[in-house]
Every structure is written in structure tokens, then in C-alpha cells.
Amino acid sequence: MASSKPTSGKKSLNTVTLLFKLPYYTQWGQSLLIAGSEPALGSWNVKQGLSLTPVHQDIELFWCGRVSVAAGFTSEYKYYVVDDNKNVLRFESGEKRKLVLPEGVQDGDVIEIRDWWQDASDALFLRSAFKNVIFNDTEGVKKELQSVPVNKSLDSEDIVVQFVISCPRLVSGSTVVVTGSNPQLGRWQVQDGVKLSYVGGSMWKANCVLRKSEFPVKYKYCQISQAGNPSLELGPNREVDIDLSSPKQSRYVVLSDGALRDAPWRGAGVAVPVFSIRSDEDLGVGEFLDLKLLVDWAVNSGFHLVQLLPINDTSVHGMWWDSYPYSSLSVFALHPLYLRVQALSDAIPADVKEEIQQAKKHLDKKDVDYEASLSTKMSIARKIFNLEKDKVLNSSSFKQFLSENEEWLKPYAAFCFLRDFFETSDHSQWGRFSEFSKEKLEKLISEGTLHHDVIRFHYYVQYHLYMQLSEAGAYARKKKVILKGDLPIGVDRNSVDTWVYPTLFRMNTATGAPPDYFDKNGQNWGFPTYNWEEMSKDNYGWWRARLTQMAKYFTAYRIDHILGFFRIWELPDHAATGLVGKFRPSIPLSQEELLSEGLWDFDRMSRPYIRQEILEEKFGSFWTVIAANFLNEYQKHCYEFKEDCNTEKKIIAKIKTSPEKSLWLEKEDSIRRGLFDLIQNIVLIRDPEDPTKFYPRFNLEDTSSFRDLDEHSKNVLRRLYYDYYFARQENMWRQNALKTLPVLLNSSDMLACGEDLGLIPACVHPVMQELGLIGLRIQRMPSEPNLEFGIPSQYSYMTVCAPSCHDCSTLRAWWEEDEGRRSRFYKTVVGSDEEPPSRCTPEVVHFIVQQHFDAPSMWAIFPLQDLLALKDKYTTRPAPEETINDPTNPKHYWRFRVHVTLESLLDDKDIQATIKDLVTSSGRAFPGKVEGADESREKLSKVQLNGKA
């Protein structure tokens, strides 16, 4: 790469002046600069970059900067917004810009480079989901990379304008031209415009020599299809002008015009967990190779996205509790549950084949039998492993897999061995192996040990899982279907990751969510919170490795609970519910602040407020039994919990194990709930690490502790509560997210979506927009506080819309479970005063699903259950049985199976045609050509919805 500095000696290189010009509006105290790969642009050191100066031109604000460089100068660069100390506040998205000067520049020339700020949304179509899947055939049909010469000698009246446009969504076989108002651009006749050359990376360029007298020039870009049909870009005319009064007139103008303006691209997809799909080949649970059939069904239905739940190994407890897919044993290892044992070998013995056939029949149940399916598969896999281990483990493909994955695979295999040997995943119980070290690991996995084949078996299973999922992923890409994964926010506290990287986690805490739509008591997921300060020391290497691993299989992913990257709801590890938590990070209420507000009785506000009248009200005549077993009376009519039950987990243990438990056998649940209400009856939470800091309890006004305070204290606490939850943290949380999320997004080229449901801080959506993160909209839980039901037609483009998701009831169940809500929906959304049908008929489903297809959202993604409800034949099962997760139950069994096989769904042309018609008529794109699709669509009438058609 050419240097911008002159060479040593008597004669200098020819030099030219670069004049950068970018329209951008900043806030007070902000400025722009350019940092790039060459010394003239700071060698990527932002503080040494080229500072820009604001210049007003009419009503626009431009940021301009000059630098002298050698005539052969090339560089990569980006624009940055900085504060007065040149600290980066934000930087533009997308790939690095590549500056290559036009051919023919001479000593003393001025090259004006007019750029547009690259928004994150503009860069989305350069992500692998689009580049390598949806539009993966465009690269192959483009011509050889071409240079863009100037084809005539220049005189003093000539200006060379270089047109540069990004066309990531170019239709196969198309070309690009620029046409405009002057003769050289064809006077708006597309066939006479200037044809652009493809220069790589979805970029097209053309040089055009214009006379000074012809400016200003209006122009537009145009796609011309392989058949010769022109399609002019949308929006107003573009315009280029020059400053004829400038003493240093630009001889070259580079118009870096961003992306070709096309209609918003909108896609559709189906969401279903791998474990829920059913096929003729599975052993009681969906398998990775079943995804090929699901992809075929998606294509036939007009979709090009399949969304899954997490697929990592969750084998922590060795029982059905491990069906919870968000509690990873390893964030790198795949779950053995999804292995297809029939595909392990081409030479499976007859007796093993017969065992597989018998297992198919035995495990073909209504729901997943997690334990039976997993143990059966592992038993069969071990038999095949013992027959072919040397052949497979000595193969070149396995050796390559081991080499590329040993950093996580070896600790994972050792962990699984120790878990089974000690009969617990709690690595604190492993004696000398409790603390991980590479030396101990190498001894554990060495060839000379008696258990070496156990270690190798885990390698073997992970290798085949990798091969099978890779096969499914390659098949999806070939069919132009995006495979979308899920990135859980946490890991199990007894996991490989907490064993190997203990300093990355705060092991004395748990994560969850404050009370919301899903659970009025909040959620406690049990994962340890992250030590972000420690993670930052190697630039979040653990996260970057996770995303790199995911990108081997997926081209898009969902960030679970994206709020956790702004702040997490942190609970003490002794909590069982999610109610009495605090945000981390957050600015607490200091003791000094509370004293200045006239609040001084900190014990009264931060310890459980338990009075005799409260006990009588809650437990009736049974209150004396409760007091005798669980409480001490520290002063007249005032009580506190005994030491052996002064936390939620201790309460649970004592209720179950107390010698007096016979007294409450029939009331165990209500006793536990009542005691939880007592221990949560506080208004301030004292920080366990600093007793002078406090946090307002969520919904503190609901407590009797709050109601019994004086009016002054109530008013102060109301104000401080609102400030803590809705004001004082916003800037901190924004900065926190801008440290961590860009690392994730830049770790791979997958398309990223964020699950942004729940209590949403004001900073979240602006940050997501700035980073190009696609949000989630569920109609029944709108983000607007004044609405009961979301309005899909008003969703923003950068969203995924869906009628339901795995964390709530299906569309059918939601419709049928609440008569009052159903009537309100029918009146406000459907627009009918008539009585709605009590059953969620296919007509009702069609109306709601169509609303989402028609929404402006970039993606409409539907749970498979909601799509199948479009046909009566698939609604024979009671609707509540189709729910995947119950967030109110921390021990929910994740076991839902679709009651029809993928083979049967592929044979059902009617359901596929129904869905494809919805895709087509809504204008959402789909892979391949739709045969016989009805381009027009009749809106559902209220009569039809009422079942009176």
C-alpha cells in the first residue's frame, strides 16, 4: 500500500489533495474525524485521525477535511463521532471504506470525496444471511472485476465525476447504470446512461467527464435486468454541484452514494425448536438432519428463514430438567439429543439396526421423553463408536475438527467425564479437580488413562453433531433459506464455562428479569451474572469465540434478552424468585442521599416488615403456627425470620424438611407463597457488598411496608423509585451496551436480532437502531404503554413481528383462554361489535397472521403451531398442549412435539399453498419462483370472521 509520505532523496513523489465532505448533524460537544489504515489518516489510531470541520451550506451541515497524500495513495477508513477529547462516541457501520484514487490524477490535483454516513441498517444486506444465502447467486453472474478508467484527456473545463453505488440486492444477471439531466448521462434516457462496472464487494463504479458549465447535475441509478427491463431507484433525484468560486477547484469528484434506493426488502420465516419437530426417522425428538425436511417445507411455503431455539448441550442434571434449552452446560458443544444415530456409520450391524427400529416405535410419543430419548441415543452411539472408533478418529476430517475445536472440546469432554464420575456437575464437589488448570486437563485426557475411550466418545459425538448440523446448514444455504440460531443470555452455574473461566462470572449472584408480562413475581433463571470488567480485558474474547462458533452453522441469530447487555436483573444466589433484585450496573441510592431527603430508618425500610396484624391477615388462625416455626418476636407484635429460614431458598428447604411439616402438608404452596410475601415485604434492598448503598424494591408501593410509612417518606420513595428505574441509569446503560454489543456484532457476519421484550429502558431502542439490531414485536405485549394490543401496520421496519413466541401461549390458546380479552381484541383490532367466536377458527388465525404478513417489519416469523392453525385438520389437539414454555414455572418441562411429521406436512400441498399465497400477496420475498400464486388478495370480512360466510 502506498505511503502518503514523500520518499527520501531530492525528488518528492507527486502529491494530491484529498478533500473529504460528509453531511452529518451532531450534538453540542461532538465532532467528526476520519481514521484509516495509513499514517495520513492515523493508522487506525482515532486520536491521530484527520479532524473534520463543520461547514454550513444552505440548510445542510457538512463536515470537511483536507489532507495531502501521494498520487498513488490507497487506504481503508471510517468516520467517527468523538467528544472534545477525541473519545469515540459512535462510528459508522458496515465494512471499512476502501479509497482508491481515480486513474489519471496528477501532481497538484484536488480529489473531492463526498461520502454518506453508513448507517447500520444500510450494512445489513452485507451480512451473510443476505450475501451468502438470499442473494448468493448475484456474485457469480457479475462480470470480472473491472478498472474504471477515464477515457479522454482533460482540459481546464473538465471535471471527472466518479459514481460509486452499493447494490447488495441486485437481481441475478442485472447491470447498473446512472442516468441524469445532462447529455453525458443520457438526458434521463436509461439506455443512453453511463454503465457502471462491478468492482467487488457489491460495489459498482463509473467515471464520467463533465464540463463545469453543466453543473449542477441531477441523476439517479437504475437497475437493468437480464431481460433488459429498467428499474429506476426510488426517492428524489440525486444532485451534484461544484464550487466554481473556489481557488483550488476539485478536478475529481468521487460520489460515494451509499446504497441503491430500492423498496424495503421484507421476508418471512417459521420458528420451531429442533426438539419439537417430528419425522419418520427420529428417535422421539427432532434431529439436526430433520432440518433438511423443514427447509424443504419452508421453501414450498414461500419462506426463507427457519428459526430455532438454543441447541447447545444442557446436560447438567442428568434428568428432564435439562430440557431447558437456555441453561447451557457448554456454550460451544452441541446437544447430543439432536444426533441421528442411523447416520453415524454406513455399516451398522443388523442387531443395532433392529434396536434402532424398536426405539423408534417405543419413543414415538405425543411429547418428548427427554431422558429416554437421550439415553437410548447414547447407548446406541456407544455401540457404533466401539465398532468404528479407530477408523473415524484417525480420519483426516476428524483430525481437522479436533484441531479447530480443541480449545473448547477437550475441556468439555473432561467435564463430562468428571460429571459422570462424581455424579454431579457441581464442580466445587470435584476435589482437586474443582479448580481447572491446563496441566490437570492434559492428564485427564491423555492416552494412557483407563477412561481415555470415554473422553474420545465425547469427541466422537460432537464430531458427528458438527457434521450433521453442518450438512443441514449447507442444505439451507443452497435452498436460499437462512438458518437462525439463538444466543442465550446466560450459562448454567455448573457448566464447563464457569469451570474453565471462573473469573468471567459473579458466582454469588443469579440473573433473571423483573416482574413483567410473563410473570408478576419476576423470573429467576439461576445463571451467574457476568463479570464484564474481567471480560473486557481481552476484548470479550469468550463472547467473540461463541459467535465465531455459531457462525459455522447459522447465518442469523437472536440475542436472547438483549436488555442484559445494557443491564441485568441481578439477584442474590439465595433467592428463589425474581422479585427482590437490582439492576447491574446501576447507580444506587446512597445513605447520604437518603438522609438528605429525610429518610433515616434504614433497618425499618430494608428488613422484612412483619407485624402481628399482617400475619393474622395472611394466615388467619394458623398465624401462630407460622410464627412459632419460622419467626422470632424481637419486640412486641414485631417479628423477624429465624436464621434457618431467612432467605427464600431456606424457606423452601425448611417447609420440606421441618419436623413440623405435617402441620402444613395440605397447605404447603400457600404457606410458601405467604412466607415469600413476608420476606419480600421491604421497600429498600441493602447492597450486600456495601451496606451504605440501597436499591428501591420493584413495585414497592404494593407492599404493606410502604403503606405503613408516613406520607413524606412515601412521596420521597415514589420519586426515588421512578428516578432509579426510569431516569438516572439511562446514560450508564447506553454506554454499557455500546461497549459490549459492537463486539458481538463484529465477531461474525451473521444477521443479528435482539429479543427486546419486558421492561424496556428508554436508551434501548435508539442503541439498537444505531447498531442495526432488529427488534421483536409481539402483538399481545406491545411496547407502547397505552395499548393492550400492538398494531402491526405501525411497526417500524427494523423489527421482527410475530403473533406469539416460544415464551407465551400459542395464538389458539391465547384466543381461547380469556373471553374478555378476546372480545376487546375483536372490537379494537378486528373492528367488530359482534360476539367473537369462542374457538380460534382458521378464519381468525388467517386474519391475525395476515396482519403480520402485511406489516412493514423486515421480518414476519411465525411459530409453526400458529401457521398450522390455518387448517382445521391441525387443530384437533387441545391448544394449551402446544405451548413450548411456561415462564412462570422455573422447572417447566420443555417437551412439546408437533403432532404431524415433516413428511406429512410436505405431502400436504394445501397448507403450503395457503401460506405461500399469504407470503406472495403481502409482497414478502421468497426463494424461487411461486407457481400459480394469486397476486391479488381478498381481505377477510367480518362476516367471514364470524363464521357466517
UniProtKB/TrEMBL annotation:
Biased composition, class Basic and acidic residues, residue ranges: 931-941
Domain (CBM20) ranges: 10-118, 153-267
Region (Disordered): 926-949
Class of this enzyme: transferase
Catalytic activity reported: Transfers a segment of a (1->4)-alpha-D-glucan to a new position in an acceptor, which may be glucose or a (1->4)-alpha-D-glucan
The organism's place on the tree of life at top rank: Eukaryota
UniProt GO MF annotations: 4-alpha-glucanotransferase activity
InterPro entries on file: Carb-bd-like_fold, CBM20, CBM20_DPE2_1, CBM20_DPE2_2, GH, Glyco_hydro_77, Ig-like_fold
Record-listed E.C. numbers: 2.4.1.25
Subcellular location: Cytoplasm
Predominant localisation class: cytoplasm
PANTHER family for the chain: 4-ALPHA-GLUCANOTRANSFERASE, PTHR32518
Name of the protein this chain belongs to: 4-alpha-glucanotransferase
High-level lineage: Eukaryota, Viridiplantae, Streptophyta, Embryophyta, Tracheophyta
